[in-house]
């Protein structure tokens, strides 16, 4: 994070403490429930016919179930088992975690990153906003001790009317925490959305604002910009099929253009 930016950081971080507070309050019960979901279901079936004297037990099980559902809403159980396996993995290859929404999740990393000395890990979840990424960042990024992180997020926020300032604040925290943990942080600019929608002008303005902020933010050397926006525009003009399959998500030509930027950035980072 740039010098003299603590006030800015905390002003942006404070609105998100509700996320962290809810996680702290429900994490133990929620994670346990996620790991023992079948057991909880079985227990609930077993007590279904109990008398009213067992209402307290039933209430406790319901509370655990609600905690589990709350955490599931942030996607904390989406990669849970895969993360546990990765933590036990003896492979010492440098981990590069791709973190974001559906643009990341739909990116078939093995297809575009072959014969490279890294362990590429996809931690994208469709439909997620930057607030969701904040909530699961410890489990899906920091806990896995990545050598590098490729962060691309904010498109869903823009589509849903979240302010550019809020998107930037959430990205700021994600960049800061990953960098402080020692990861090399690459931040992708957001693609221009190509949809026929009356909100298009507002969405484009938000995307442009966030992308300008990303370029400024990475000027302090704590992150490196990957200009996916520009790369996709070039690919869209060069390919007869364009670079998008639905106006939001890249097709193979689009992902190939993005992958080249990542490979070049990894090489430039000394990997």
Q: How would you describe what is shown here?
A:
- The protein is an alpha/beta fold.
- The protein has two domains: 6-73; 83-268, 3-Layer(aba) Sandwich (Rossmann fold), CATH 3.40.50.
- It is 56% helix and 10% strand.
- Strands 2-1-3-4-5 form a five-stranded parallel β-sheet, with helices on both faces.
- Helix 2 (17-35) packs across helix 3 (37-46), helix 2 crosses helix 4 (55-73) and helix 10 runs parallel beside helix 11.
- The protein starts with 5 loop residues before the first helix and ends with a helix.
- Mean pLDDT is 82; it is low at 13-40.
What characteristics describe this protein?
about 270 residues, alpha/beta, Rossmann fold, 5-stranded parallel β-sheet, 5 strands, about 55% helix, about 10% strand, globular
Describe how the helices and strands are arranged.
Elements: H1 6-13, H2 17-35, H3 37-46, H4 55-73, H5 80-88, E1 94-100, H6 102-105, H7 109-112, E2 118-124, H8 130-140, E3 148-152, H9 155-159, H10 164-180, E4 184-188, H11 200-217, E5 224-226, H12 228-238, H13 252-268
Helix pairs in contact: 2-3, 2-4, 8-10, 10-11, 12-13
In short:
With 271 residues, the protein is of the alpha/beta class.
- What characterizes the major β-sheet? 5 strands, parallel
Rg (CA only): 21 Å
CATH fold-level label of the largest domain? Rossmann fold
Class computed from helices, strands and strand pairing: alpha/beta
Gross geometry: globular
Quaternary structure classification: single chain
Largest sheet, spatial ordering of strands: 2-1-3-4-5
* The named CATH superfamily of the largest domain: SGNH hydrolase
Low-confidence stretches: 13-40
Share of helix, binned = 55-70%
In sequence order, what are the helices and strands, one letter per element?
HHHHHEHHEHEHHEHEHH
Number of domains: 2
Second CATH tier, the architecture of the largest domain: 3-Layer(aba) Sandwich
- How far apart are the first and last residues' alpha carbons, in Å? 23 Å
Number of helices: 13
- Mean pLDDT across all amino acids: 82
The tally of beta strands, per DSSP, is 5
Strand content: 5-15%
* CATH class (first level) name of the largest domain: Alpha Beta
């Amino acid at each position: 994070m740039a010098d003299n930016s603590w006030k800015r950081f905390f002003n942006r971080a404070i609105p998100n403490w509700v996320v962290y507070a809810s996680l702290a309050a429900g994490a133990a019960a929620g994670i346990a429930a996620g790991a023992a979901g079948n057991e909880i279901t079985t227990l609930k079936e077993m007590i279904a016919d109990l008398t009213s004297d067992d209402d307290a037990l039933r209430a406790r099980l319901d509370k655990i179930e609600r905690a589990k559902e709350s955490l599931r809403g942030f996607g904390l159980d989406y990669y849970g088992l895969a993360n546990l396996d990765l933590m036990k993995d003896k492979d010492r290859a440098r981990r590069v975690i791709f973190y974001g929404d559906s643009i990341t999740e739909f990116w078939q990393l093995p297809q575009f990153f072959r014969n490279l000395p890294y362990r590429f890990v996809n931690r994208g979840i469709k439909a997620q906003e930057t607030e969701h990424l904040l909530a699961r960042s410890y489990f899906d990024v920091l806990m896995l001790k990545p050598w590098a992180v490729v962060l691309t997020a904010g498109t869903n926020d823009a589509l849903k009317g979240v302010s550019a300032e809020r998107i930037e604040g959430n990205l700021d925290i994600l960049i800061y925490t990953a960098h402080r943990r020692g990861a090399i942080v690459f931040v992708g600019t957001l693609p221009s959305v190509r949809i026929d929608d009356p909100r298009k002008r507002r969405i484009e303005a938000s995307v442009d604002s966030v992308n300008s902020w990303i370029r400024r933010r990475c000027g302090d050397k704590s992150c490196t910009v990957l200009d996916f926006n520009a790369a996709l525009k070039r690919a869209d003009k060069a390919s007869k099929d364009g670079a998008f399959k639905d106006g939001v998500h890249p097709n193979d030509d689009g992902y190939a253009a993005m992958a080249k930027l990542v490979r070049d950035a990894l090489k430039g980072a000394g990997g």
